[in-house]
């Protein structure tokens, strides 16, 4: 601590998907996180409450407290209750849908840090970047890509997961960087929606009417606009097999998931839980609100043939349990022929990954 009681060298490092580090020094305590403009860490995201959480010091110890936020505060994937939790360097801290890592340096950084677009485009005019991004949203300047999902029993293509790239001049093409910008501007759900809407529009030209899997932003599932847009798609394409993928980190409230599943089934849309095994979701949610598909995270599949036999056995038990619950298991991130064979031996029903096929334009698949 310095003479003003500040933690020397502590800072939050954002885990932004754009690859640019968002470093926020804890210069003053208590350190308030939220959507209010006066917060030390001002986050413009719909998953963040106005006063979301605070970091403070007591007895030389750094502590975190959730301030009754709507979407929760998590430390190392565990959701906080009303208690104050001590923090250590390296802790993963998530406010709503936004994740940071607590870091410490030997002395306080003098680096200019802020939660602004300057971090994503340091050589460009920030207002210009924001204007171009909003223009991307208005013009729907994205290009869909489709990654095949195969049936491991037959070897046939079962469906495609929809991805996308940006096509606006002066902005990055990769979705990770685009979502990092969208997060700062509070436009994550808008960007997510144009990605999947344009993907479904292009996907109707794929041969043999495959199932299309769309990724949605965690905040999107609670937005009435999402279901309205999905109903419009269903009215226009009543026979298109369609599945909505919900990230595992959003699958923590069985009641809201049950409502979502009912809404989707009412318009003949199926539900998938994505990235299973990568976050804090529990097996209880699978039992209470079973999805149609469970997508096992790539981290569970990577180097599977080289893992100890007990690891493969454990994965086999999870896949069998999934099957017994009437859920179709899907292995993500299959990158080698050996991994594909191992997934087939474990009992996975479906698989996807670079070994099977990279995301491609619709004309490359037609």
Task: Please explain how this structure is put together.
This protein is an alpha/beta fold. The protein has 2 domains: 95 residues, Tumour Suppressor Smad4 (Sandwich); 239 residues, TIM Barrel. Helices cover 29% and strands 25% of the residues. An 8-stranded mixed beta barrel has the order 12-13-14-15-16-17-18-19. A 6-stranded antiparallel sheet has the order 2-1-11-10-7-8, with no helix packed on it. Strands 4-3-5-6-9 form a 5-stranded mixed sheet, with no helix packed on it. Helix 2 packs across helix 3.
Itemize the secondary structure elements and their pairings:
Elements: E1 10-14, E2 22-25, E3 31-34, E4 41-42, E5 53-58, E6 61-66, E7 73-75, E8 78-79, E9 85-86, E10 92-95, E11 98-104, H1 126-139, E12 142-151, E13 157-166, H2 175-185, H3 188-203, E14 211-215, H4 224-236, E15 242-247, H5 254-266, E16 270-276, H6 283-288, E17 293-296, H7 298-301, H8 309-324, E18 328-331, H9 337-346, E19 350-351, H10 362-365
Parallel strand pairs: 3-4, 13-14, 14-15, 15-16, 16-17, 17-18, 18-19
Antiparallel strand pairs: 1-2, 1-11, 3-5, 5-6, 6-9, 7-8, 7-10, 10-11, 12-13, 12-19
Helix pairs in contact: 2-3
């Amino acid at each position: 601590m310095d003479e003003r009681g500040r933690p020397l060298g502590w800072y939050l490092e954002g885990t932004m998907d754009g690859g640019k580090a968002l470093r926020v020094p804890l210069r003053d305590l208590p350190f308030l996180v939220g959507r209010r403009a006066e917060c030390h860490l001002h986050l413009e995201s719909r998953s963040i409450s106005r006063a979301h959480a605070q970091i403070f010091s007591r007895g030389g110890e750094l502590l975190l407290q959730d301030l009754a936020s709507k979407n929760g505060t998590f430390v190392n994937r565990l959701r906080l209750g009303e208690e104050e939790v001590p923090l250590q360097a390296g802790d993963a801290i998530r406010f709503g849908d936004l994740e940071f890592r607590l870091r410490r340096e030997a002395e306080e950084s003098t680096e200019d840090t802020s939660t602004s677009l300057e971090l994503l485009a340091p050589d460009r005019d920030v207002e210009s970047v924001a204007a171009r991004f909003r223009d991307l949203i208005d013009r729907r300047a994205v290009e869909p890509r489709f990654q095949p999902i195969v049936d491991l029993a037959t070897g046939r293509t079962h469906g495609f997961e929809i991805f996308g790239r940006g096509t606006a001049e002066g902005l990055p093409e990769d979705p990770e960087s685009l979502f990092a910008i969208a997060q700062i501007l509070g436009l994550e759900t808008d960007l997510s929606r144009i990605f999947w809407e344009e993907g479904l529009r292009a996907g109707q030209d794929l041969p043999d009417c495959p199932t299309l899997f769309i990724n949605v932003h965690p905040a999107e599932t609670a937005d009435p606009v999402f279901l309205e847009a999905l109903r419009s798609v269903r009215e226009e394409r009543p026979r298109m097999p369609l599945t909505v993928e919900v990230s595992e980190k959003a699958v923590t409230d069985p009641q809201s998931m049950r409502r979502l599943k009912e809404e989707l089934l009412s318009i003949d849309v199926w539900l998938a839980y994505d990235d299973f095994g990568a976050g804090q979701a529990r097996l209880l949610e699978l039992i209470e609100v079973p999805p149609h598909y469970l997508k096992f995270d790539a981290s569970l599949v990577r180097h599977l043939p080289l893992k100890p036999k007990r690891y493969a056995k454990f994965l086999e038990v999870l896949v069998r349990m999934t099957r017994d619950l009437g859920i179709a298991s899907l292995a993500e991130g299959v990158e080698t022929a050996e991994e594909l064979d191992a997934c087939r031996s474990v009992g996975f029903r479906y698989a996807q990954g670079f070994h099977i096929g990279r995301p491609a334009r619709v004309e490359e698949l037609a």
